[in-house]
Amino acid sequence: MKRERIFTLNNPYKLRVDPSLATEIGLNESIVLLQIEYLISISDKTIDGHTWTYDSIRNMKEKYFPWWSIATINRTIIHLEQLGLIVVENHNRAKYDKTRWFRLNFDKIKTLESVGVFQNETGVLQNETHSAQNETTIPKTSTKTSTNVIDTVALIDEQETKESVKADETPSQEKLNGQAHFVALMKICKFDSKLMTKDQRGQLASESKRLKAADVTAEQIERFSKYWYGVDWRGKKGQAPTPAQVRAEWGKFKESGYYEEGAIGW
């Protein structure tokens, strides 16, 4: 006999979490990307042949991510844009309206190992099955004006930004000095010290500590970059490794000609 579920969630905005995608691009990034994908999948707004959805950071915090600060959500979206996974523009009728519009960059998403992509741009199909979401969104009618990553910061209220940044501060350069393993891993993974999320910092700290405990030197971590971008198929496509992938691929790296100092390309 099939057992009944123990409890149900009262919140109508059920988010999706996928371990494979979180490992590949970061936990925060995976949660936001899947939410944007869902909102696009129920949107009927097509501009320049692409399906878009729109929302403000403040509204996203209230409806979907109440446990994050506005600064964290903003940094996560900017990082997704830097990774090339989403495109952010301004298609609002009023020029002063800075509400952001989002679409998926399917060419870049197709390079991810943890997702499969529909060809008709109706959304991203994950390899795992997830619970359906009940929330619907009605996009606004608007016209296009250009914007860039700098414009997105204008959404954040000055006072709230100061409070959010204090609570979710990026490590200063002074704190990073002397942490050679952390810095070497951060460079290989192409994380920006000023933009990376709290989760990404945690991944870096955890994996760099494990590598250091295994008597791996910071110089060896730096040499891993040559192996990743010269041998691994993901690196050849320009995809940066995650901290977990660096540790997972370390055995193959040790067996390659890139491991010892003065080896191939050094």
Write the layout of secondary structure elements.
Blueprint: H1 19-25, H2 27-41, E1 45-47, E2 50-55, H3 57-63, H4 70-82, E3 86-89, E4 100-104, H5 106-109, E5 115-117, E6 124-126, H6 149-152, H7 158-167, H8 173-176, H9 180-188, H10 198-213, H11 218-230, H12 233-236, H13 243-248, H14 250-255
Antiparallel strand pairs: 1-2, 2-4, 3-4, 5-6
Helix pairs in contact: 1-2, 2-4, 9-10, 9-11
Description:
This protein has a four-stranded antiparallel sheet. A two-stranded antiparallel sheet has the order 5-6. The longest helix has 16 residues, at about 200-215. It is globular, with a radius of gyration of 20 Å. Strand 1 (about 45) and strand 2 (about 50-55) form a beta hairpin. It has helices spanning about 20-25, 25-40, 55-65, 70-80, 105-110, 150, 160-165, 175, 180-190, 200-215, 220-230, 235, 245-250, 250-255; strands spanning about 45, 50-55, 85-90, 100-105, 115, 125. The chain has 14 helices and six strands. About 35% of the residues are buried.
Could you give a short description of this structure?
By secondary structure, the protein is of the alpha+beta class.
Main attributes of the structure:
266 residues, four-stranded antiparallel beta sheet, 9% strand
What is the H/E string? HHEEHHEEHEEHHHHHHHHH
Share of residues in strands: 5-15%
> Averaging pLDDT over every residue, what do you get?
75
Number of domains: 2
- Ends apart, CA distance between termini: 63 Å
Main β-sheet description? 4 strands, antiparallel
Number of separate strands: 6
Which secondary-structure class do the elements indicate? alpha+beta
Q: What is the percent of helical residues?
A: 40-55%
* Rg from alpha-carbon coordinates: 20 Å
What is the tally of helical segments? Answer: 14
Strand sequence of the main sheet, in spatial order?
Answer: 1-2-4-3
Uncertain regions spanning at least 5 consecutive residues:
122-178, 262-266
Shape: globular
